[in-house]
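thought: fold this chain, then report.
action: predict
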Amino acid sequence: MTETSTALLSSQLIQALNLDQEAQDHLTELIATTAEPDHLNSTLEQCLFSFLDTPEDPRMLAWQEAMAHWRWRRRIILALGNSPFLSNILRRWPEFLMTLQQRGIDWQAEPYKQRVIDDLLGTEDREEAERRLRVHKHLSFLDIGMRDLTGEAPLEETTEHLSLVAEATLEAAYQWLERYYEGRFGKPMAVPEEGGEERRVKFVILGMGKFGAYELNFSSDIDLIFLFDHDNGMTDGKQCLSIKAYYVKMGRDLMSMMSKQTKEGMVFRTDLRLRPEGEAGELSLSVRSAETYYESWGQTWERSAMIKARPVAGDMALGNTFLKNLHPFVYRRFLDFGALESIRDMKKKIDHKVNNQDAYGKNIKLGFGGIREIEFFAQSHQLIHAGRIKTLQDRRTCPVLESLADLGLIERSTADTLISAYRFLRTVEHRIQIVREQQTHNLPDDALGMQQLSRRMGMMDLNQFEEKLDRVRGQVHAAYDDLFFEADRQVTEEGGDERVRQLMGTSTDHQEQETKEHLAELGFEFPDQALERLNLFKQGPDAKKHPLTEAGQRSFSRLVPLMLKHIFDAPDPDLALQHTEQFLQQILQRTNYLALLVENPALLSIIMPIFGSSTFLSRHLINHPRIMDSLVGLDFITTYRGNNEMRVELAEKMNSAEDSEERFDELRMFRNTEMLRLGMRDLAGFAELQEVMAGLSSLAMVVLEQACMDAMSDLMEKHGKPMWGDADGQQHRARFMVVAMGKLGGDELNYSSDLDLIFVHTSGGDDQWTDGPKQVSNTQFFARMAQKVIGTLTAFSAGGRLYEIDMRLRPSGSSGPVVTSLEAFEKYQQEEAWTWEHQALSRAHVVVGHREDAKRMREIIQTILLQPRETDKLCHEVAEMRQRMFEEKRPPEGVIDIKQAPGGIVDIEFLIQYLILAHAHDTPTIIQRNANRALMSIKRAGLIDKETFVQLDEAYRFYRLVENRLRLLHDRSENCIKLDEKLTNRRLAHLCSLESDQLLIDRLQQHFAAVRPIYTSFLPQETEP
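observation:
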């Protein structure tokens, strides 16, 4: 590289271009930054050769004017000094500079395309049409290239404009050929189906790869697929062709028109190898054939390719319909981690091919830390997640990476690193290709070539450029490697665990006996059963019962050591092994789930502790493995979700459902997933007990609300709105309300709890009918609605039952109507209700209903609870009811019932309810639905002292914790502890964070002994149980 002083322009050029000293100084600085400053003088002379000696030539005047402006000087010099390709364009068409300077290019998509189309359709001569296409391409590339080299256009604008040039020239060529073919062969007409009319066949061209994503390079092929919508028919001209022959012939002509070399060069190389069956497939094929192919034989790489597909020419509506029909093939509704293995294999093949060409370190697209690794990283996440997350259904690489970070699926720092790397590497790729418009992705082999590339990148220091290139590629490969090979490393690491190796090597009877002894040492209570269960892990699934694909077998083999280590590390390995084996048997036929677990060691770390501690949560996963799709994410169990967040998510899922059955499935899946999430937060220590109970209550309310909305919508569609008329003849809308009682009313719902509900409507007056064409009385309407809601919540299916419903607290109990009018409810509570029903009202809460109706219900409840009462009578009735309840539900010997035991949960709840009914008239602030909040209010009112409050509050919290853990352990509504079930009780103690089952029993007995005297001091019993 010579000194820049020798690269100055000749005096002839300085004079011809009318350069003043300021312009000369600027040019000296610019020339010094170019890749080939020594050649710039001769290059410029060649561009001006035909009019260098004619200063009055408009072209020379345009060059002079351009050189007088610093921005145009910069564009011209950086183009001529860095790109022989752009230099050749200016040599061939020096008038382009005048065109760009005087009017520029309007890069709005539709006007740009229309100009190219109109120009091409202005000639019927094919050779002239091909010439015009190439002129448009070169003029546009000159403008794009100059703005790219100067840094005026960001990468995204450059690639979008390059893609627009391809789109416009392709559409223009297609329309020109369509006109030509119709004149020669006639219009392609589809044979009408029975009763239909003959119509013209539609044709569309899909852009794939970088073209589809608006990410073309300066020397990209354009990847295309040709489709027509009907293959039964002929053209209607004198020279007839079948539909297929017509479009195959046109397709070949279109490829030739775009890619053949003429004296003006080419437009774009075309590549149709991404079509169904690749090079062996039909050049143009029907939409139906393509859909059949993808649905029946489509592979993972074809799903990945279709992510970027878009219609680029022809009938856009046909293209969009085709892609919509293909949507389930491309974007699976479940998490598809099986795609990772396929993509990993694709990349290994690419690496092998590139290595064979000695280009792994040189190729910035396919080699180490190259562009393809970033694209594979983004597309892999799309194949896995985009079926469930629409924001990931984007063709462009950088927006996908942004969305992945926004969704918490990758770290923000990873996204930022990859986006920065992508822009840098794509810019390097552009600088390589803009030299001679060659389709190459390799870095130069020699130092001079690297120096020139560095200068084209605007970096004068080659060492600095090479250091950045190495750093960026290293960062890309590290992120790619973590995604695709971290699981392999962990499998290797866990497979090296001595316990795993010993087990997997067991074969003889002697070895089996040693293994049983070793299993006992590892903490297994039942080593014989454990060894039998472990056969699945050692021998693999029965090939007849559970035949696995080759990919499934590989995933299973990689998964086993990971699971075994978690089992051996579990505090209760017997339980962990039992649930893990059941889980594996459930998912063996779903290779995708095996792959999901292998590729997500973090997910295994979440679910394996569940298998070792909770039958309730384990069966949720075993029976509904689809829930795992929702577990993949950085914040699934760490983030608190309130009613509003749950409502929004459920609404999105319900809106995406296509029919009532799918809505029902979505509702069940939402409830099961959220139940599991809350349980996992609970066990992992991310949520306190009060938050768990409140969360379970909120979940039930949201599900109940959705069931009511669906029922109301269905009935109104058939019968219209329920209306009622008042004495003045005014019509009013009758509304539906759900009142939660018991634990749901108090925000204390537990796992497996029933929902205690009362249904109320607001209809009244004499005229109570719906206003639809198929009228029914409001009584019938609301009765049917209640039945629908109950049916939705209690229906048992493969997805399980949502909730058990208990309606016995409604007016008149089981003998009363399922739905009561608000007026009848108020009358019953004032005139007929028993004391125990007023006790239950202390926890009543409207969970579904209009604000005005909820307010009216609260007023009714408040009025009842604030009534003055005769204390002795109240005391007797409450105590008698508690005694009767205990006698009816007295546990047998050797069983502790934490709910019914003297001093247990019911004693505390009855005491709270008694104090509210006895004293609310004088102290309304003690009316609280939640037991712990009620105790605090009762203490503040001076009705109990601090010591009593502490004893009751601590006991109640501990009882509810034990109840919570009992239900997690047993997968049923359970309140009893059987003293002779030592193993179960040890498991329960562990869940309660206690060292032994005896410590658990002792703690319960201590609380019973403290609570019972407090209870009897307020509510004496005639006979002590």
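thought: worth noting. The first helix runs from residue 11 to 16.
final: tokens above.
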